[in-house]
Amino acid sequence: MAPPEITVVGSANLDLVVEVDRVPLVGETVLGGDLTRIPGGKGANQAVAAARLGRRAAMIGRLGADEGGSILRAALERNDIDTTALMTTRDTPNGVAMIAVGNDGDNSIVVSPGANGRVTPADILTAGELVSDAQIVLLQLEIPMAAVEAAAAVATGTVLLNPAPAAALPPGLLEHVDILVPNQTELAVLADHDGPVDVETATALARALPVENVIVTLGAAGAMVVTPDESVHVPAPAVTPVDTTGAGDSFCAAVADGLVRSLSLVDAVTWAVQVGAATTLRPGAQPSLPTPTEVAQLLA
Question: What is the C-alpha to C-alpha distance for residues 86 and 63, in angstroms, rounded to an integer?
């Protein structure tokens, strides 16, 4: 079997989604629609997104020995993702994300890590060549930081870190990261910045980080590509979102897809903002992740 082009080390969650008129404020109760259960988790979403864009993908992580774990494994395998290093944890429930989606497409998410919190550096070493031989290793922060550090250290290809959810990072981790992809909130945390992050401030904050290549996602405003040689604003297509869940994950996968296809970083991000925008035009996390043909159709 050919090695994966993209290996994702990260989380798999069962998303429990309720549509609401608006996302509730702190302490407020709102009535919503019927509950739906959708495969999700940043790691699994990025793996499925990469596979739907035509890449050979592998997923490393942990599932619970419950119905949720079975649903998630089946969803990955339906997308031809290599799950040989996706472990089952017998004494821990599967990861769950509780998501309220408002009429405007914005969402509020609470995650219970479950089995995702049991991923260890030993799991990374057991996965072996799935990490070391991949052209791109995609990482996020919904699994223990020690496992993220181990994967970044073992990788020999390009390491792309999506530092979500926002958290302070160990000093040594960024030494192994080739491309950092934070959103505005995550960039503010990493740069210890107290204030808004927009197109004007993103470049200065990104250049203050010890990573040569930073892609700052700006939601409807697109993304900033900041390298030692240039700072380029890539605008996003104008769309009316249905559900923004999963858009950041499809963006990261699309950047990886572009790099596998030898696109420049700016061209890869130009592709990624299109994929991310198309993702917002359908509900759900994994169900909304598009193929290249669907990107063109959704944005037409």
Answer: 7
Report residue 113 CA to chain centroid gap.
15
Please give the Cα distance from 156 to 138 (Å, whole number): 12
Query: What are the backbone angles phi and psi of residue 38, rounded to the nearest 5°?
Result: -130, 135
What is the phi-psi region of residue 230: left when phi exceeds 0, alpha when psi lies from -120 to 50, beta otherwise? beta
Tens-digit pLDDT profile for residues 186-243: 999 999 998 888 888 999 999 999 999 999 999 999 999 999 999 999 999 999 999 8
Q: Does residue 165 have a cis bond before it (omega within 30 degrees)?
A: yes
Query: Length of the chain, please?
Result: 300
- Return the number of other C-beta atoms located less than 10 Å from residue 240's C-beta: 8
Catalytic residue of the set 82, 123, 243, 249: 249
Whether the CB-CB separation of 183 and 244 falls below 8 Å is answered with no
pTM exceeding the 0.85 threshold for the entire prediction: yes
Active site residue 257: no
Longest dimension (CA), the chain: 52
Expressed in percent and rounded to 5, the helix, strand and coil fractions of the chain are 35, 25, 40
pLDDT in tens, 92-142: 999 998 989 888 877 788 889 999 999 999 999 999 999 999 999 999 999
Q: Where exactly are the structural domains of the chain?
A: 6-299
Fold of 6-299: UDP-N-acetylmuramoyl-L-alanine:D-glutamate ligase (3.40.1190)
Give the DSSP letter string of 60-121: EEEEESSHHHHHHHHHHHHTT-B-TTEEEETTSPPEEEEEEE-TTS-EEEEEE-GGGGG--H
Burial class (CB within 10 angstroms; exposed 0-12, middle 13-18, buried 19+) of 19: middle
Return d(Cα 251, Cα 82) in angstroms, integer: 21
